[in-house]
Amino acid sequence: MGLCIDWETSGATWGGDSSIKYQGISFGAIVFDSETFTEVESMYCLVKFNSNKYEWTEGAQKIHGLTIEYLEKHGVTQEDAAVQLIELIVKYFGTDSKVMLLGHNPEFDRRFTNQLLNSVEFEFSVERKNEEFTHIPLHHVILDTSALGFITMGLYKSDLLFERMGFEERGDHNALVDARQTLETCKIIRQVMNEVLAGD
C-alpha cells in the first residue's frame, strides 16, 4: 500500500518551507495499491483557517478558490482533521509499517501533513525528530510525479503534466482531484512502460 496526498494551502514560500508561514487548508488523501496504483480508499477534508497563527494570500486563493469564510462554515479544526487522517493511515498501515508517500511535489505535501499531525502531537517523517510526538514513519522511497514527468516528458508543472495525460482541464484546484490525477499519472506511466518492455 501507499498513500497519495495533495494539499491546498493559504500560501507558499518558493524555495523554503511553506508550512512555517502558511496553513494547509484542504487535502485529498488516497490509499492505493502500490503494485497497480489502484485506489483503495480516499478522503477529502477542509480545515478551518487559523488567522492568529498563519498568513493568507490572494495568490493562493486564486488557485484553489477557497475563502476563509467558506472554510469556517464547512471545515473542521486542524485537530479533528488530523484524527481523521491518522485513522485512515492506521487502518491500512498499522502503527509500525512505513508509509510510502506519493505526491506531485511530495516534500511540500509532507510538510503540510506534518503541520496538521503536529497539532495532535504526531510526526510524519522518515526519521523521528521530536521524541515527545508519536512517530508515523515514512518509507525512504518517496514517489514524485513532478520528477517522473520531467524524466519521461520534460514536464514538471502539474497543469502541463496532467494535460499531457489527457485529464480534463482544471479550474479551481481541488486537492482530491489533484491526488487522483497524480495517482492516475503513475498508473498510466507504469502501463506504458510495461507495454514498451513487453514489446522488446
Descriptive terms for the model:
five-stranded mixed sheet; two-stranded parallel sheet; 42% helix; 7 strands; single chain; 7 helices; 200 residues; alpha/beta
Description of the molecule:
- The protein is globular.
- With 200 residues, it is an alpha/beta fold.
- The mean pLDDT is 93.
- Helices cover 42% and strands 20% of the residues.
- The chain is built from seven helices and seven strands; from the N terminus they run E-E-E-H-H-H-E-H-E-E-E-H-H-H.
- The strands form two sheets. It has a five-stranded mixed β-sheet, with helices on both faces. Strands 5-6 form a two-stranded parallel ribbon.
Brief account:
By secondary structure, this protein is α/β, with parallel strands linked by helices. The protein has helices spanning 58-64, 68-74, 78-93, 106-118, 145-153, 158-164, 175-198, and strands at residues 2-9, 24-33, 38-46, 100-103, 122-125, 134-137, 143-144.
